[in-house]
Amino acid sequence: MVDLKIRPDNFALISTLSACAQLGELEKGKKVHDFIERNAIKVDSFLSTGLVDLYAKWVKPDGIGISGVLVGSSHEGLGDEARKLFDEMESVNKVPREPKHYGCMADLPGRAGLIKEVTEIIKDIPKGGDMSVWSGLLGGRRIHGDVEIVLEY
């Protein structure tokens, strides 16, 4: 579809992820996930499930897989599950935290209006994070009608 310049919808992406999971085509599934992120496609609960299904079929998680689970958790309001996975990334799964992982974690409380928690996450990020982290803060403030930002460092 991409080669034909046809933009796949969520149904096509879910079907493709499912096929990749069933056929053991993790690398092709990662390309689909990358396509989703690069094109800022809205990740709904069905697409989140497709991503989780793809990555859950593999024994050893990686940064991309964890990112997919964190994004899905954020969009579904599964904060406790995301926090547990994030906390265990390095110690249990041996996967280094990257700015995109912190961005997912900043998005969770931001969506719930817990802006103070987002600022605490930002303070713990090496080098202050990247755009994904700050968009979690700004997005949360926008959702809840509070666009004035005051951070104390």
TrEMBL record:
User: Known InterPro entries for this protein?
Assistant: PPR_At4g14850-like_plant, PPR_rpt
A Pfam entry, by short name: PPR
According to the UniProt entry, its GO molecular function terms are:
RNA binding
- Domain of life of the organism encoding this protein: Eukaryota
Output one GO BP term: RNA modification
- Report what the protein is called: Pentatricopeptide repeat-containing protein
Q: Which organism is it from?
A: Populus tomentosa (Chinese white poplar)
